[in-house]
Amino acid sequence: METNDIPVSGFQGLGPAPPTPLRNVRRGPGAGNIALIAGLCVVALVGLLLATGAITGRTGLAPAPGLHFTIPAGASNTIARPGFDSAIAIPTDIRFASPAEAVITIQNLDDVEHRAGPFLVGARQTFVQRFPEPGRYPVVCTVDPLETVVVTVEG
After folding, report:
1. How many Å is the Cα radius of gyration of the chain?
2. Domains along the chain?
3. How far apart are CA 8 and CA 113, in angstroms?
């Protein structure tokens, strides 16, 4: 049987290549200071943002004006008919001295939709109702008329 074998001497360079010697890389003058300068710029930028109040060390948002109500997590376990029965009590007569503070915020921390007085708030949602003009605002509760809220905004 004839084969077309190539003699081993015909293969040059098979096997692992010898290691290449490392060369000394020459950097230009001041090249070692680039990292230092970049770090100082970051520190200066953060300091500027802190000084101007663009960022703060506090977490969360600053509280909004007006009234704030929270439906706690697990509230559905304490209510006979979640979504139908009111999860928390909301005053039926609410008065604001000016439109700037005339805001009602209701945060639902529970995993089901809830009613808070006449307001329906989705699961893990926050409902915000603003009253931008002076006046009297009746907010009718169609589920329970006794929970109708009247908001009065003075100017």
Report:
1. 35
2. 67-153 (2.60.40)
3. 80
Per-residue pLDDT of the chain (155 residues; tens, 9 = 90+): 444 444 445 545 555 656 666 666 566 665 556 665 655 555 555 555 555 544 444 445 556 689 999 999 999 999 988 878 899 999 999 999 999 999 999 999 999 999 999 999 999 999 999 999 999 999 999 888 999 999 999 98
pTM over 0.85: no
